[in-house]
User: What shape does this take?
Amino acid sequence: MNPTASPWWSPHIHADRQPRLRVRARTIAALRGWFDQEGFWEVDTAALQVSPGNEAHIAGFATDMADPRGSRRVYLHSSPEFACKKLLAAGETRIFSLSHVFRNGERGPLHHPEFTILEWYRAGESLEKLMDDCESLVRIAAGIAGAGLLAFRDRSADPFRAFERLSVAEAFSRHAGFDLMASFDGDLPDRDRLAAQASAIGTRVTDDDAWSDIFSKVLSERIEPHLGLGRATILHSYPVCEAALAQRSESDPRLAERFELYACGVELANGFGELNDAAEQRRRFVQEMDERERIYGDRYPLDEDFLAALSHMPQSSGIALGLDRLLMLTTGASRIEDVIWTPVVETNP
Assistant: This one.
């Protein structure tokens, strides 16, 4: 924050922000009402966890917790996912959470170190049901805001049009001009094949880029800017190596049951057909932490309690939606802070 700028709590600044914040409150009330009608229970999960999560590029906030047994390192959660899945293992079948979550090293128009995730799970139900849920919830939020269109910068999407459903392979063919599945050698991703394809379309590839790094570069540069324009897009059928917590597709072992929701080029939600094979989940977590150590020089512990619970979790589908981002699009805000009641104050170095 510019030190000469007025703080968010200045009455005249708050007066400008207030209409969007009141839309936020009304939207949350309406979403809670929808979940109640659908037979969900709202759960309240602890923010302090033994691990912030085990995805390579998500950084956590750490603290030391003292108790009579001594001091131990704990983390603010980056998602309520592990706790929610433990509740599924305990026997819950339809649950949702509105949680403040924390991710370090993320700040920008679409990123805030503390933000709100709307996460929900359906035991024994399909990923397609979650896609339908997304359409319903986005329309509820748009209706509360009086938004005929979702908008971000110069992009817009009609929330009341049927959402486009597009596979990742189709998106690469359409927007990057190459066959993503040709970058596999059998069932395994081939780094050199993808590097050649990406380089041919002008994406910069370095010697230390892994397959996932190249995939992410092409996705962010060539694919995402075209998603959710005119209407929302559900991008589905991700490669397994890009879906650490999702089960494999029954129709293609190279792919996973994962989708992301986009509107106006902005990622809003990330859904999975949830992996409940504890041994496979451990293998993927270790692989993710190896990658994190290679890139960032550190790693996070595994939540052994979560892995123990996973073996008891029924087949389920789950999804996390960035509530603040959705509110940005329904209110036309240009920065995420505009829809957060008390944003974290930026400090000068």
Q: What stands out?
A: The chain has a mean pLDDT of 95. The chain is about 35% helix and 25% strand. The two ends are 11 Å apart (CA to CA). The chain has one domain: 11-163+231-339.
